[in-house]
Amino acid sequence: MMENVINMIIIGLILGLTYALTSEGLWGAALMFFNVLFAAMIAFNFYEPLAALLDRTGINWGFSDTLCMMGLFCIALVMLRMTTETLAPAQVRFPTPIYHIGRLVFGLAGAVVTMAVIILAFHAAPVHKKIFQAVRYDTKPPFRLGIDHQWLGFFQHATGTVFARYGVGGRDPFREYGHGGPVQVFDPRAEWLINHEQVRPYGEGSIIGGEEEAAAAEGAQGQAPAGRAGGRRGAPAPGGPPP
Predict the structure, then answer these.
(1) Confidence (pTM)
(2) How big is the CA angle at 68 (ends 186 and 83), to the nearest 5 degrees?
(3) 8 Å CB contact between 171 and 184
(4) How far, in Å, CA of 182 to CA of 161, rounded?
(5) What is the DSSP string of 181-209?
(6) 131 forms bridges with which residues in the sheet?
(7) What is the pLDDT of residues 128-168, one digit of tens each?
(8) Less Cβ around it within 10 Å: N or C end of the chain?
């Protein structure tokens, strides 16, 4: 029941954001989609090293991952918005069918990316293992569409191909990327959601069992400082400092 309520709230927020973006027309909605897309990529590229730097100050905020992720996303989005408003023309005319279809497509895409980032920020927060008593690593909101999973998959692909960073040592254990050498991908074993659920401080219950549970627990101890809902600190996204 609670899961359906959360799914309906997410759908409602997506529809509201879509309406707001489509009201800017096709050109404005397209610009905002790319602004949101690149702001999200900047946030996920740098939030982990920035959160680690914040933790080293001794503040020991449990929500440093969420703070850095959303802070970088909002700052990058505002800066990109100001840049596109300054450089791009205020209005571009399109044929009527293209105008309406295009603004709906770009508006919906921008809203989905924004909600995916917000959902993932909750995953990185020091909250209950079952977020809002409904969302776990395999819930795939809303209604099993899994926009959070889709964004992580897209960003993983981007760090392995388009924005690949090569270095010494294999960072891609499954050899999916990096034909020209070992590539440092964002989430080598696709464990981002599992690792963050494991280290969230509230709630009980194992999410995996047997030998996998022991391996994940050992990895979580080495990857996340105590007292914070952090994730993997060993493999920062490309652009961050090398481990």
Answers:
(1) 0.81
(2) 90
(3) yes
(4) 12
(5) S-B--S-TTS-HHHHHHHH-SB----SS-
(6) 135
(7) 999 998 999 999 999 999 999 999 999 998 988 888 777 65
(8) N
